[in-house]
Amino acid sequence: MIIKSIIIIVFILIIISLGFALFHLVKHKTQAQSEKTVKALTFRITLSIILFIFIFIALATGMLTPHGLGNQMQKTPTAAIQ
After folding, report:
1. Cβ atoms within 10 A of the Cβ of 21, count?
2. Which of 5, 7, 37, 57 would you call most buried, defined as having the most Cβ atoms within 10 angstroms of its Cβ?
3. What does pTM read for this prediction?
4. How confident is the model at residue 8 (pLDDT cuts 50, 70, 90)?
5. What is the dihedral of CA 4, 51, 39, 37, to 10 degrees?
6. What are phi and psi of 5, to 5 degrees?
7. How many Å from the N-terminal Cα to the C-terminal Cα in the chain?
8. Helix 2-27 to helix 31-61 angle, to the nearest 10 degrees?
């Protein structure tokens, strides 16, 4: 449950960072303000990469298990599919 909470919090941070970048892009046109846009987008990309690595490690170690249609198809025997 803690893993899913961390993933949701990071997704929310990514969306907030994207909102800040959009605000600075639309509102301000100066060079100093465009640097804030770049910093916000860089922060978003960094969070996205960290989240991807975190999810990959969680899946590889078994802390996070997939569920849904893909998981159900893997569990069905081959004879039942034919």
Report:
1. 19
2. 37
3. 0.73
4. very high
5. -70
6. -65, -40
7. 37
8. 160
Place of tokens 């004879």: 79
Q: How far apart are CA 47 and CA 5, in angstroms?
A: 15
Kindly report, residue by residue over 29-65, the tens digit of the pLDDT: 777 778 888 888 999 999 999 999 999 999 899 888 8
- Which tokens go with 72? 């159900």
How far is the C-alpha of 75 from the C-alpha of 77, rounded, in Å? 6
Residues 6+ apart with CB under 8 A from 70: none
In this structure, which amino acid lies at residue 72?
Q
